[in-house]
Amino acid sequence: MAEDLSIVKGDKTAEYQSIIPQINALVTGEPDLVANLANTVAALKEQFGWFWVGFYLVKSDELVLGPFQGPVACTRIKKGRGVCGTSWAEAKTLIVPDVEAFPGHIACSSLSKSEIVVPVIRNGQVIGVLDVDSDRLDQFDETDKLFLEEIVASLDFQV
Ligand code: SME
Question: What number does the ligand 1 atom closest to the CA of 56 have?
Answer without folding.
Answer: 4
